[in-house]
């Protein structure tokens, strides 16, 4: 049976976000990979007796979007914090698209940071809508609720409390968002965008 593979990331010292937080956070990511695989395995196992197990299979499958998107969201997040920070390159397709749609990079950033302050657990995400070739800012509840069909996640900011509370306290959410952008390796975001075009 095909299995989802846990990815490795080269995350060095970050501003504000401690090594301990990253270490613990990677364990959570590992849990999403394991559970994505577990759900697939359990469904195959239970499918041996469909008459008896249909309800259990369907309830197990219902959770797949949570585990799978938890895995993929975290891969984009950790990858964007890997290999050291780098700024957004001027005059690239990504930079030009942000400026075209929002007026300027700064205006886009202001909106994205304000989306990150949405109450509750979830993600601030920048998508590329592949059908229209346009960027979309969005909020995703949990890992999956509101994910946009046929759009590629270009940038993903984890706003679950486990990403920041140990280092910033609950009241430091805004500073965590600021530091995320200080630590961000924009070349990864540019690759995500270019690969999806
Ligand atoms: Fe997380």
Class inferred from helices and paired strands: alpha+beta
In round numbers, the mean pLDDT is 97
* First-residue to last-residue Cα separation: 31 Å
Percent of residues in β-strands: 5-15%
Task: Characterize the largest beta sheet: strand count, sense, and whether it forms a barrel.
Answer: 3 strands, antiparallel
Helical run tally? 8
Q: Name the poorly predicted regions.
A: none
User: What is Rg?
Assistant: 18 Å
SSE ordering: HHHHHEEEHHH
Global shape: globular
By oligomeric state, this entry counts as single chain
Task: Give the bound compounds.
Answer: fe (ii) ion
Strand order of the largest sheet: 2-1-3
Helix content: 40-55%
Structure summary, number of beta strands: 3
List the helices and strands and how they pair.
Elements: H1 19-46, H2 50-62, H3 64-80, H4 93-102, H5 105-116, E1 122-129, E2 134-141, E3 151-158, H6 165-168, H7 173-183, H8 186-196
Helix pairs in contact: 1-2, 1-3, 4-5
The structure holds fe (ii) ion (FE2).
If you had to describe this structure to a student in words, what would you say it looks like?
- There is one protein chain.
- The protein has 8 helices and 3 strands; from the N terminus they run αααααβββααα.
- Strands 2-1-3 form a 3-stranded antiparallel beta sheet.
- By secondary structure, the protein is an alpha+beta fold.
- It binds fe (ii) ion (FE2).
- Fe (ii) ion (FE2) binds next to helix 1.
- Fe (ii) ion binds at residues 25, 28, 74, 158, 160, 162-163.
């Amino acid at each position: 049976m095909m299995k989802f593979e846990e990815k490795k990331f080269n995350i060095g010292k970050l501003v504000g976000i401690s090594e301990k937080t990253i270490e613990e956070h990677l364990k959570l990511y590992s849990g999403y990979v394991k559970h994505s695989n577990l759900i697939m395995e359990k469904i195959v196992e239970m499918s041996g007796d469909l008459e008896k197990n249909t309800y259990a299979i369907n309830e197990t499958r219902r959770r797949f979007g949570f585990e799978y998107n938890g895995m993929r969201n975290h891969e984009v997040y950790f990858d964007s914090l890997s290999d050291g920070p780098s700024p957004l390159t001027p005059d690239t397709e990504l930079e030009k698209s942000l400026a075209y749609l929002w007026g300027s990079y700064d205006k886009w950033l202001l909106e994205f940071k304000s989306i990150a302050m949405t109450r509750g657990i979830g993600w601030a995400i920048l998508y590329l809508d592949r059908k229209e070739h346009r960027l979309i800012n969005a909020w995703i509840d949990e890992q999956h609720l509101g994910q946009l069909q046929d759009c590629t996640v270009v940038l993903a900011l984890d706003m679950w409390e486990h990403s920041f509370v140990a280092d910033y306290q609950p009241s430091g959410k805004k500073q965590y968002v600021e530091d995320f952008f200080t630590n961000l390796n924009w070349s990864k975001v540019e690759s995500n965008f270019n690969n999806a075009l």
